[in-house]
Amino acid sequence: MISPGNYAHEAAPLKLPSWNRILVYFLAVFIVCWSVGPFLWQMSTSMQPDRELMSPTPHLWPYPITLQHYVNIFIEKSFQRYIIKSAIVTTITTFLCLLFGSIAAYALARLEIPGRFGVLGFVLGVSMFPQIAIVAPLYVLASNFGWLDTYRILVIIYLALGLPLVIWVLFGYFKSIPKSIDEAARIDGAQPLTIFSKIILPISLPAVVTTGLLCFIAAWNEFMFALAFTSDINHQTVPVGIANFTGLHFVPWGDIAAASVVVTLPLVIMVLVFQQHIISGLTGGALKE
Amino acid sequence: MVTAEFPINETMRKPKQIRVGLSWHSPFLLLVPALASIGAVSVYPVFLGLWLSFRDTTLASPTDTFVGLGNYLQLFSDSQFWNAWIHTIQFTCASTLFETLIGLMIALVLCERFRGRGMVRAAMLVPWAIPTVVTSKMFGWLFDGQNGMVNYLLRSVSLIRHNVDWYGSPDFALTTIIIADVWKTTPFIALLLMAGLQTIPGSLSEASVIDGANAWQRFWYVRLPLLAPTLLIASMFRALDAFRIFDLVYVLTGGGPADSTEVLSTLTYKNLFSALQVGYGSSLSTMMFLTEILIALIFGVFLLRQMRAIGQ
Lengths: 289, 312
Known about the structure:
The complex is a heterodimer. Chain A is an all-alpha fold. Chain A has 14 helices and no strands. In chain A, helix 5 crosses helix 7 (151-176). By secondary structure, chain B is mainly α. Chain B is 70% helix and 0% strand. The longest helix of chain B has 34 residues, at 278-311. Chains A and B meet through helix 1, helix 4, helix 5, helix 6 and helix 7 of A and helix 1, helix 2, helix 3, helix 5 and helix 6 of B.
């Protein structure tokens, strides 16, 4: 994969004094435990019977192992309904985001657009403002159109919220492809969209896949709009479903943990698989190892 | 490989006049789908919200008249607003500060070469990928007042004698939320700072080592000044993002106990969807907007000064 202007020179391995080495390893272990620990504990929790979870001394390793919590969420709470709805909304959003975003990023990165940095700055600025500010006006609009409790309204909102990220990340990649490639095609008479679909897109496939993943994660995790625009249980997404998990007499931590694991494990695995691309995408290609 | 698929000959055969579709002179057309959806969902509603903030619109009754600055006057004398405003600022400052410091530490560690560095980097992405709602529930369980892991661990090392009701008591609730937020978003800052650190030429660091600088001096006199712009930009993004916190608070405490964790987003949400006060809620979110602009301006001033200092 091509990544843009990386003028970093990795220092030749500096010989650190040995106690510095030890400190680095110690901190590295700490970072791993701190990052992964809470989620591992959530996994362990999801497999422990309620009786064990309520005991004064928690057990790190689940024993005896039970799948009761997973049975609860799928049989009693029909958790799969939320997953299907989330999957529909998120997949459509990701597709549209990549379609609109990649074309826009292509135009900004490789065609002559006067004031392109104005456009990029505008897009970035829009992604920074408080989202609660658009909830009320959008709610009024959506209820006028009769779009409350539809997939449509969530897809439209997530599309607009995801586009800035897609445009920025893909802009960075497209910019890094040598200009000579599409100039040659241009001299041969190719149209911009042909160059885009036949040259730029195939070259940047890894970047496009990564950006799609970022977009997918953002839409999958979104909570506030999903909460505000869906009151009907048949259109609620996963985050709203998990937020509404409550028990009559006690908080069902085991069920919550099971649901967390079900919706998070696929994300975590995808992120670990694509980690190098994600890191270089998020940091504009400056970090690529 | 790529050029082989490219239909050069076919395109060349076409006479120039018949070219249909997009010309090289209207690349703006390619921006239309993206900008139209951003405009419809993000820009237009902001202005609509501004307009609503001058009206007494409610969802409960058909009242909808122009009230001028009425909502804003009511806002300024509303103790709930100032309460939420202060919590939001406290949260923003504390989480941005800790995230930047811890993120910097992580970035410095991961800039050293050691075995398993790739694994540590991968592990760091885990909190970032987890949905915020799940993070809230996860920290709700970790910090549970009765059977929480944190209470157990603190009791085992005798730091506390009795269980602390972390997010159930007004004294610790905001702190718990800050800890959860730091856990979730520090990796992102660390990544940005790692990228910034890598653009600092290694030769500078080496030269300072040869000149006898120790690790601390190497950091303080060589890397930190060069990293300052990245540091400011990263923490600005974090501050702007932290300011609009909603999910963590809404799911973990719902703004309680006794309004001790009420932030502007949750207060606005309640005004909109519990009290159905669209006009008043819109004036609240307009105030949030103004505060965000203020935060961006403050960082902008620092950034400009920093840039100038480096330029000289």
